[in-house]
Amino acid sequence: MDAIDWLLDSDPAIRWQVMRDLTDAHESLVAAERARVAREGWGAQLLALQQPHGQWPADAPAFSPEDADAEQWWHSLGPERQGTLFPVWTSTTWSLALLMAFGVDPYSAAARYAIGLVRENVRWEHDGEPFFDGEVEPCINGRAVALGAYFGVDVAPVVERLLGEQMADGGWNCEQENGSTRGSFHTTIDVLEGLLAYERAAGSAPELAKAQHRGQEYLLERRMFRRLSTGQVIDHDRKTDSPATWTQFSYPTFWHYDVLRGLDYLRAADATPDDRVGEAIDLVRSKRDADGRWPLENPHPGELYFAIDDGDGQPSRWNTLRAMRVLRWHEQTKTKP
Description:
Layout: H1 3-8, H2 12-21, H3 27-35, H4 41-48, E1 77-81, E2 84-87, H5 92-102, H6 109-121, H7 138-150, H8 156-164, H9 185-202, H10 206-221, H11 259-268, H12 278-286, E3 294-295, E4 315-316, H13 317-334
Antiparallel strand pairs: 1-2, 3-4
């Protein structure tokens, strides 16, 4: 079975994206397959897990809109296991992020109902802010913008805040409020993905395009994974010579940056690749196996409701889909006149 057929032998969440991005199927066929996400497979399973008070996970406490003890972003931690607090990826933010990644139709009845519950009930832990109003950290606000824009919620005030918080180097950093003056890859990719989703929903504007271009330059100037100051690979432990996690392709990525996530953003933004992505593209090519598939690497520890890949080191449909469309974008875009 070739890689395309293998990808199509999967959940509707993957199939419709393969049809759109890799096979150039007719729009009507893509739309029909996408509509299945809310009714079948992973998308339907995740929608069914939302609680009547609007939150995921199943053991979340019921609370009223006046309560401030609410959504806990990535600071949520589950039970202690072997002396380590285990992250939980079953919160409202990450559940909505997965629904967005699955491509659930935001205007389907199931999605509209789910988003209505979130708007009415879910608050941030910071100061009880309504979910789609964001809070104070750019990383969180970038995700809130992405989700709000995708699901048809007005997030313009959060976008304005993010535009005003872009740093001199073109990036963003969640530690800005604590005095940081340099961008962070993790925060920058969250904000860029949010601004792109907003641009798609609300239309482009000069200040929005400028901010995205500066953010893209932040990534490109660093060759997608190298320090601007030294050229060294970021996130590489020189003492133990352990591989940099940014050169390993995880999925879901959650708040973590890696090279494939960065490249897939550039592809989605229809950026024109130049020589500065060459090393990153070569890295993607190097991970393809003899069957034309890419493995899951460095899965971020924590609890999920259900598996959407076969496990660490196994061929990954999500990584294969994203890698194939990144390579296709690179080949097709660089040959444009």
